[in-house]
């Protein structure tokens, strides 16, 4: 095995591959004596060697590495300089004096490089030399980099010198402001606000953003005082910063005069092209706004894409609802702009209480607007009111039921009158909707009739079952199963023999859910295990799994011979889930099935059943060449071992 002395010799080899390998090994063995040679090899125009050297120098580190790599900062080759800087960013903190000494170098480029490196050291010792560079270095780029690095260090000890540098050249100001923002020390607030006086528009904008990010309440009063004299663009930035610092609700705590003045500024900011400024203005106006605010915010919300701007739109709707019911919302509801109307309904839905009454003005506004609105808005309105209304709104919905023809609108009316209020008086109007052209309206009408219930409704469905129309018999079977399966047992007996598979399926489900005497419904359900329809047989198997007992076992075992693999699989699931021991031999047989999924299910079932036969069969599966089967078998074996 080679030692460090050997590596030193090998690093001078003419064979590039040997040099590369030796460079890696020198790092792994922490060969400090190889550091000078490794640093020299960074200049080699060979990517593999450079990568190996880079890795090893980082591993070895220490003062020796720092001292060996520093001279490479003066290289004429940019790639070499960049490699040296990357290494020093990682290991430079292991020899701070050598780096700090370079801050006084005559070459401004070296001072820039070392200022950059010091920012990555995470060392308190870097603060003082960087501050010296920031305040005294004649080269602007050195001062800029010093400020950047102080921000990267993020140490509050750098705050005093950064505060002093706030009035430097504009290029340096950018990095100083960013650094102060990252550190976020309270003492910077005064310095930043004072710097606004002589700052360019761009710097002033950055300062205001910084104050907003820092979130120090101390800045609010100073910013408010500057608003009257600030140009519009800058004032809008101040609006954003103030709202960000204290939030919208706190604006209500301002004096009446200050609040009204700030409200006017918010309204102006609402017109800004910057979305962040708009959103800050909207947040503020939610608490101090009014008609004008509601109108302006509604216009912005209506222009958003409901899909692309979903999150922003939801926030704006929430803020609009905070303002409350306004004439602007009423106007938007009935205006020609359908997008504004759409948003207005969403806002009113949030303003409305959970339970609408005749006395509630928001629900009244929605119901009064319904007959004047366009169809898309009508659909929204009726959905909102139906979800919140009680019996006091029934007249409105009965009128809708009698006069409207749109399926979506009718569904909402049917839901409220039937499912929610269960009004027997509307049965005559809802029952005909069972023949509506749209299935979703039929389904709504069916559920409504079931919810209303009663002897009259039941008699109607009993008569409907005699229809020659399959869909009528299907709905009647479903309804009578819900209304009283035992009372309608004779009809359900007929339904399980119907020529239509879906009717047989629904009848089987109704009988199993009846809660009646098992001896009555079980024979009817189990008889359908030989049904010609796979879907009916699957339903029977699922019922057997839910009502599992020893009586079900022979039938489930018989289902393993079904011609349809899905029926087999559901039977296997039921037997395995209930750890049916007598099913183990059949599951072992299933391991030879040609359907991979059936085999996987057999493995799973054997793991649930357990026992010596299952264990032996699963061990045999682990000899398979198929990874998926082996993995499943191993998991099943683990389950058996835990039993």
From TrEMBL:
SMART domains: EZ_HEAT (SM00567)
Gene Ontology MF term list: oxidoreductase activity
Entries under PROSITE patterns matching the protein: HEAT_REPEAT (PS50077)
Superkingdom of origin organism: Bacteria
SUPFAM superfamilies: ARM repeat
InterPro entries reported in the protein's UniProt record: ARM-like, ARM-type_fold, HEAT_type_2, PBS_lyase_HEAT
Job description of the protein: Catalyzes the hydroxylation of the N(6)-(4-aminobutyl)-L-lysine intermediate produced by deoxyhypusine synthase/DHPS on a critical lysine of the eukaryotic translation initiation factor 5A/eIF-5A. This is the second step of the post-translational modification of that lysine into an unusual amino acid residue named hypusine. Hypusination is unique to mature eIF-5A factor and is essential for its function.
Protein name per Swiss-Prot or TrEMBL: HEAT repeat protein
